[in-house]
Amino acid sequence: MPYPFADMALYFFIYSFCGWLMETVLCSVAERRLVNRGFLGGPFCPIYGCAVLLMLVLLLPVRDGLDEPWKAVLVIFFSGTVLATLVEYAISWLMEKLFHARWWDYSHMRFNLNGRVHFGISLAWGGLATLFLYFVQPLFETLVSTLYAVNSRLPHIISWSLIAILAADTVISTMVALRIGNKLDQLEKWSELIRGYKEIIELPTKEEILYKIEGWYERLAEGGRKASDGIKSIIPLPELHVLSFDGLRSRLAEYANELRKRRDLMLSGTRYLQRRMLKAFPRMRRHGNPASLDEWQKQLQKEQKPDEAEKK
Fold first, then answer.
1. Are residues 180 and 270 in contact, defined by beta-carbon separation less than 8 angstroms?
2. What pLDDT was estimated at residue 16?
3. What's the distance, CA 130 to chain centroid?
4. Which residues fall within 8 angstroms of residue 198, CB to CB, at 6 or more apart?
């Protein structure tokens, strides 16, 4: 490594903070409201810290080893573009595998690769890499040297404290992301049931309705799903058999309305950390049916407008 561990850790957090600040400013301007950008709750975007650490390890020798500066600049620019693109692509892929969602998506922009990276942004990364190594990094080296001058143990204390904070923040943010995924799963299940009720109510005979419901039971059993995940906790099948045709349709309509109420209550009951994360990634896309995520985002926008009106 080109620096001691404590120094590398400090540079990681400095650049993670700079990345968070840049993203927050750009997104806040675009959204015309303050957006706490990033997966973590704290003011860090580790993707920037990871990318810059790679550049420090791999590209500082280029900066200091080539005699002709213009050659070094070209190598750093193109290498920084490639390195940053690889880091962004890898983290996007990893987060999608972990949380079954695309947290950022460039599919709406031309010259993207699978929606994970964008050619123009990658070039900007190359420019930033050159700027960092030649102009910004020397300033941060002076800052870290100043910390050593104050107390030789101070950089170690700060770096390990920040690592502990980052670890706690990562655990909390991961739990929030998983809960968002679980909530979306439940919303999608309830939406599927509501659609199913609507279709069943339109069936012409009682026998066809009961046959359809029994088919739901079989699919639940085959999938190994718990009763609370499906209709067993809502529909007492023996009771439905004794109802008249009109009574059966009326009872199913009641179940559908009850599910709608539960679903609406879940949509409106968003906790602060979940709300922050969803607002931080307005272009997040989920695998499968995106309707529930879109409805959730719209609900948050509706809740935000009255708050803004009260402030005015």
1. no
2. 93
3. 29
4. 256
Residue 286, strand partner residues:
101
What's the rounded Cα separation, in Å, for the pair 47 and 15?
Answer: 9
CA angle 307, 308, 311 (to 5 degrees): 90
Residue recorded with tokens 């279709």: 199
pLDDT of residue 23: 84
Cα 114–chain centre separation: 17
Half-sphere exposure of 116 (CA within 13 A, CB side): 16
* Centroid of chain to Cα 110: 22
Tell me the domain boundaries of the chain: 5-150, 180-311
Q: How many CA atoms lie within 13 A of 65 on its CB side?
A: 7
C-alpha to C-alpha distances, 25 to 28, 49, 51, 200, 280, nearest whole angstrom: 5, 18, 20, 50, 12
Whether 290 has a pLDDT exceeding 60, the answer reads: yes
- The secondary structure of residue 243, as a DSSP letter, is S
51 and 87 in contact (C-beta within 8 Å)? yes
Residue 285's beta-bridge partner residues?
Answer: 102
Tokens 């922009």, located at residue = 109
Name the band, by pLDDT with cuts 50, 70 and 90, for residue 220.
Answer: low
Q: Are 155 and 144 in contact (CB under 8 A)?
A: yes
Q: How many other CB atoms are there within 10 angstroms of residue 82's CB atom?
A: 13
Contact call for residues 90 and 63 (beta carbons, < 8 A)? no
pLDDT beyond 90 at 148: yes
Picking from 38-47, 55-64, 170-179, 275-284, which range would have the lowest pLDDT averaged per residue?
A: 275-284
- Rounded to an integer, the average pLDDT of 224-232 is 47
